[in-house]
Amino acid sequence: MTPPGLLSLVVPVFNERESLGPLLSEIDAAVKPLNRAAEVWFVDDGSRDGSWQTIVELAAMDPRVRGVKFRRNFGKAAALAAGFSLAAGDIVLTLDADLQDDPAEIPRFLEAVDAGTDVVSGWKKVRHDPWHKVFPSRVFNGMVSRLTGVKLHDHNCGFKAYRSAVVREIHLYGELHRFVPILAAARGFSVGELPIHHRPRKFGRSKFGARRFLKGFFDLVHVSARCTFGNRPMHLFGHVALFAALLALPCIVLAWWYLYATIAAIVLLNFAGTCFLTGLACEFALGANPPSEPYAVAETTEDRTGSSRTQSTSAP
User: Is the CB of residue 241 less than 8 Å from the CB of residue 277?
Assistant: First the structure.
């Protein structure tokens, strides 16, 4: 019987020093019964609380633990991109470092992937977060599902499992980490979800804010347009141009009565539309030639040991 392949776990870290030791212990307890080789990549995204020193200590105690330190905070998408580029496993699991994701769910994710799903996204069906975080998240998830056709209850959940082929094809930059299942579906990969246990926060603080909702909306427009019109952009821009031309007709008629107000409205709408479409066109260009490394690495745990370590056949 062929032994199961290597499992890679990628954990973005930003000021979460206190939770790293307990998280690794829980990962150990979840993976060890599977009798599966594993590696854990902690990606320190510019932490300022001593998280990197804790990662170095954990790596010194366990050769299956690896770490990457960024020079500054580049964002979660960059942290995942770095982890994906380094992960060697047949299956790659991502989870947050704040202990709200329960590593005991790992075997269920692996079962779902082994059953044939390429991307398995966690669904925090019962959330232990304040209402001002839960409500906007539900609105956003509904918008994403409706506009993209990839119907998930929790697109932004950090607990996900991927076949290695997915992380090799998907290029992350900016804040596209929320939309990996959508980008994967556009490439023909199958996407599913799994209800998971969500735990109250013990350490650190939430990175959620009102600005994230607005930025998420712009990213949603970009991803939806890219996945739908990526190979036929003229269909998108042609429809927008036609719609603008139709709007111009009544404006021309009204100009006879409200000349100055109509001119001002046309100028402002033209400026807004030009800015929006220019930004969208730039996103298309960036999507066609994404940055190979949207981050800068300051140090790795291998730099401390001076050698590359081989994988063990036991769990971390």
Answer: no
